[in-house]
Design a protein that fits this description.
Number of strands: 0
Oligomer: single chain
Number of helices: 33
Strand content: under 5%
Structural class: mainly alpha
Radius of gyration: 42 Å
């Protein structure tokens, strides 16, 4: 628990506390005009002392001193106040403490509370937690709400007293029931967290509301969170913003940060990125890591403020150095991308590691990738697999896919196709298209799983529908052959086209072939040539061979020879044979027996039957 700030300082009633110690006369001789003010519920001893000193202004200080010397406990407390404040006598902290101690030793609750405060803060005495708690306890047992709060806080935090949540709740309740705002706030937190008392969100909200209505800023913050969550009270973003604003205006950084989020999202208020940045900055300058990270994002994107990548890095670094995991990850990203700041793979990996060690799956994935590439760290497949596994076990689909690849290849882990299938299936079921494609291939090729054409086509389709070009091509082949799906040439063409338009040369070739032969589409030599050309320009020898055939159809033997030569150079046996015939007959080139025999021999070496027959016949 954290100690809250005081309220707005408005005086509260004494809540039934005694105005004087009943063992002493109310009006001892020499102090007939001096009275003890009531103890104000949430005011600390300094405020009370000031009230006593204010009365002392209207009474002769010598008269007060005489009564104090005579043992009048109220006079002793008043004289202590006068000495502390310098009213009617020189300001003298040591003298003030002397008189407060006299009054405290006679059981004056105000003096006991003041002494507790003095020992707790080291005001005029050496700081002494034991003495502070001793005097606070005495005052608390007499019903002083401030002292009850201090005891409750000490037991809650484990500062100055052994941590004891039950004892903390006991004293916080005493103070809270007297209207002490900070006691109410911390009692609400105890109910919210179930520390020292059974968890009860309804009770938590009840006490926060009491404190918030007294302008206690931390209660206002927590009440705002409760209004936004809508667990105990009806969800009401506008009311949440109202309470956060009250707390934010009193300087509560968490409330300022939440107000920034509200303005950024337009949640409970009209969306206003400029106002969001203003609140983020207020909280960030107080060291709030969430606000620092949000302000950094705004600076990088130029949202609500001028774009400034360097300022973004500054704020992310401040948050990251406080252990803010998202800020650590974002720092890793900006140094990895090299867009906002000069690329620095070592710095990037440093921040990814911090976020990864904190358990952030995205950072674990990126650290695994860094080890796989040797980017900012030495290449290390085993370390790469380790970090991929951590992210994969948290459900990161990209890490599951990459870990599957490592098992399939035996990189950094023993080769194990069953493990590959396991991780690819996890990723595929999350919609990872590469994993879906890989599963389709395994079922297609009977690798790690029994061959299953239907299952293969199912996974190809899932990836294809996400735009995966290789899956679209393979699904086209399935429809063309009727493997795993009913044979359907029109459907085959549809998937070939999708892949072809993404530049898949195999799909471009088959789409060209479909137009060339009129399979699944009307025959169209122009469309056939267009798609053959695209595939040929990517190095597909089949497409070059078929382009040559289109040239022959147009009696363009020179063009045909050009395409045969391209395909032949890539080892296409039919093009080698046709090029040999062209050199033999002088079609599109000058006759050249040596060239003819060279290409015929190459075709024959690949098992081209006609080339073998002609060579054996001696005709070439």
């Amino acid at each position: 628990m954290i100690e809250g700030k005081s309220g707005n300082g408005s005086a509260k009633s004494g809540q039934g506390l005694p105005t004087v110690d009943p063992r002493f006369p109310l009006h001892p001789k020499g102090s007939s005009h001096l009275r003890a003010p009531s103890w104000f519920g949430s005011l600390g001893p300094i405020t009370f002392v000031n009230a006593l000193a204010d009365q002392a202004k209207r009474i002769d200080i010598d008269s007060i001193r005489k009564s104090a010397d005579a043992g009048d406990v109220i006079a002793q407390a008043a004289l202590g106040a006068a000495c502390y404040c310098g009213v009617g006598t020189p300001k003298d902290l040591a003298e003030a403490l002397k008189w407060f101690k006299m009054a405290a030793e006679q059981g004056n609750a105000t003096a006991e509370a003041f002494l507790g405060w003095a020992y707790a803060t080291g005001q005029g005495v050496a700081r002494d937690a034991f003495e502070a708690m001793k005097w606070y306890r005495k005052a608390a047992e007499q019903g002083v709400a401030f002292a009850q709060f201090k005891l409750g806080y000490a037991y809650s935090s484990g500062e100055d007293l052994p941590q004891d949540a039950v004892e903390a709740v006991k004293w916080l309740r005493e103070g809270a029931e007297q209207g002490h705002d900070r006691s109410q706030t911390l009692l609400g937190l105890a109910y919210a967290t179930g520390k020292g008392v059974s968890k009860d969100p309804v009770e938590a909200v009840k006490w926060w509301r009491k404190a918030a209505q007294q302008n206690e800023c931390l209660a206002q913050f927590h009440l705002g969170v409760a209004c936004l969550d809508g667990v105990v009270v009806p969800q009401n973003a506008k009311e949440a913003v109202t309470w956060w604003r009250k707390a934010a205006e009193q300087g509560v950084a968490e409330a300022q940060a939440n107000l920034g989020v509200a303005y950024s999202k337009g949640d409970g208020v009209t969306r206003d990125p400029v106002e969001a940045v203003d609140w983020y900055r207020k909280a960030a300058e107080q060291g709030n890591a969430d606000a620092q990270s949000s302000l950094a994002s705004a600076c990088l994107e130029g949202e609500g403020t001028q774009r400034d990548p360097n300022e973004a890095v500054t704020w992310w670094r401040k948050a990251a150095e406080q252990g803010h995991v998202d800020a650590q990850y974002n720092l890793g990203l900006v140094y990895s991308d090299g867009d906002a700041v000069p690329r620095d793979a070592v710095e990037s990996t440093k921040w990814f590691r911090k976020a990864a060690e904190a358990g952030l799956a995205d950072a674990q994935f990126n650290l695994g990738l860094a080890y796989a590439k040797g980017d900012g760290v030495g290449r290390d497949a085993v370390e790469s697999a380790k970090w991929y596994r951590k992210a994969a076990e948290q459900g990161d689909a990209g890490a599951q896919h990459n870990l599957g690849l490592m098992y399939a290849d035996g990189t950094g882990v023993p080769q194990d196709l069953k493990e590959a299938v396991k991780w690819w299936r996890k990723a595929a079921e999350q919609g990872h298209d590469d994993a879906q494609f890989n599963l389709g291939e395994l079922y297609d090729k009977s690798a790690g799983v029994p061959k299953d054409a239907v299952e293969s086509a199912k996974w190809y389709r899932k990836a294809a529908e996400q735009g995966h070009a290789r899956a679209q091509y393979n699904l086209g082949v399935d429809y063309s052959t009727g493997e795993g799906v009913p044979k359907n040439d029109a459907e085959a063409v549809r998937w070939y086209r999708k892949a072809a338009e993404q530049g898949h040369f195999g799909a471009q070739y088959y789409l060209g072939a479909a137009y060339d032969r009129g399979i699944g589409v009307p025959k169209d030599a122009g469309e056939a040539g267009k798609w053959f050309l695209k595939a040929a320009n990517q190095g597909d020898p089949r497409a070059a061979h078929d382009l040559a055939a289109l040239c022959v159809d147009k009696r363009d033997f020179t063009g045909a020879v050009r395409w045969w030569r391209i395909a032949a150079a890539k080892g296409h046996a039919s093009s080698q044979f046709n090029l040999a015939v062209a050199y033999h007959n002088g079609n599109g080139v000058r006759p050249d027996a040596a060239e003819s025999r060279k290409w015929m021999s190459l075709a024959a070496s690949q098992g081209h039957n006609e080339a073998i027959r002609l060579l054996r016949s001696g005709r070439i």
